[in-house]
Specification:
The structure is a homodimer. By secondary structure, the first copy, chain A, is an alpha/beta fold. The first copy, chain A, is built from eight helices and seven strands. The interface between A and B is large, with 40 and 40 residues.
Chain lengths: 222, 222
């Protein structure tokens, strides 16, 4: 019975996700859903990304957290419009569902944006199951988390379009096998594009930004 | 309706959790539920803990992961009996539920143990909601995850008995405010005991082991 209900919840979610997707298409906004474990460096990555893309594109951000507005406060310094969603107002959900994103969208004028970044709740399991209507799903994995998370949390790496390996500035201080990490990602998602970056030093940022630029242009030029 | 079902699931879980708890009492086993984000260093912490406690106590381990037996293989080297649970056989659950733990317990002779370590699925949200009958809940938070996770995932820090701040060997390379981290933990859980450790160098291990020793003795001596 529990599984029946989960299926119903996911089906209802897909209906709203499709409405969100139509909305992004109508307004020609490229929407990305950024997911990761807690503390992988998503917010720092997004701060730097907003700063670097600001001269070229107009961006808005939806930030999902169980609780607090810390991330929204950090991202607000970029000047981009931000909506913080706290899932503890929706039963403490461990993920963003499509209807939660839809209610956040109502607080924006989407015509003002080329890019909408949706920072999901820090969690490698549940957010992978919920389509929110995004154009692309991005998983961020900190190198401090070790090499084998892709095979331990395979759905996340299977559904995402690109992977970002973050915090590479810490590599000299870790026992980390880069080849193993990449092999694990490609074991669950053959050919998945991988960007190895440090949001702190901006090492490796160009590849990530180029992928974003191309994806945004493709969307806004229809 | 979704919330009604969640309540039912949690109520059913509590019934089985109580059975597990009675079972631990009957066999005088001290059971801990170790929770954290993915990649916080739980498995390395447990490898070292098993090695250090082996001369004094007999331990068994239940390892929960969505997928793979990597952690069980690592922990098996300690010589302790291990049962790996993969939640992808239970609908890909993002947490260990009491009935999943109960089925793992059937594969052990609990009279052989003083300590049972249950390594939960890497996730700071959902495992906090599921009582599995443990005597103590432990949250592990890597210093690489930043200071503010306790306020962003408050339920986890509220329900846990002790917190372990792990990977302190990386502190020289991080922008990390130790006082802020401790203040955030105590903001959601006043007086919570905190062990600051490196599983790699075993710095700070004595306090953690002493807490475990005292807790195990209290349980086995009734």
């Amino acid at each position: 019975m529990e599984i029946q209900v989960v299926k119903k919840v996911l089906d209802a979610n897909l209906t709203v996700a499709k409405q969100n997707r139509d909305r992004f298409s109508r307004h020609r906004v490229f929407a990305i859903n950024v997911m990761s474990s807690p503390g992988s460096g998503k917010t720092t990555l997004l701060e730097k990304t907003l700063a670097r893309l600001a001269p070229e594109f107009r961006a808005g951000v939806i930030v999902g957290d169980v609780s607090t507005t810390h991330d929204a406060e950090r991202l607000a310094r970029s000047g981009a419009p931000i909506v913080q969603v706290n899932t503890d107002e929706f039963g403490g959900d461990c993920h963003l569902a499509a209807h939660v994103v839809a209610s956040a969208l109502d607080r924006f004028d989407l015509d003002q944006f080329d890019l909408l970044i949706i920072e999901n709740v820090g969690n490698l399991v549940c957010p992978a199951e919920f389509d929110i209507g995004e154009d692309a799903k991005v998983v961020v994995l900190s190198v401090t988390e070790g090499e084998d998370k892709p095979v331990k949390y395979p759905l996340m790496f299977r559904v995402c379009d690109v992977a970002v390996l973050s915090k590479i500035d810490l590599l000299p201080y870790l026992d980390y096998n880069r080849n193993a990490a990449i092999a694990y990602i490609h074991q669950v998602h053959g050919g998945m594009p991988i960007f190895e970056i440090s949001a702190k030093t901006e090492a490796g940022f160009d590849g990530w930004l180029d992928w974003l630029r191309k994806s945004i242009r493709r969307k806004i030029e229809g």
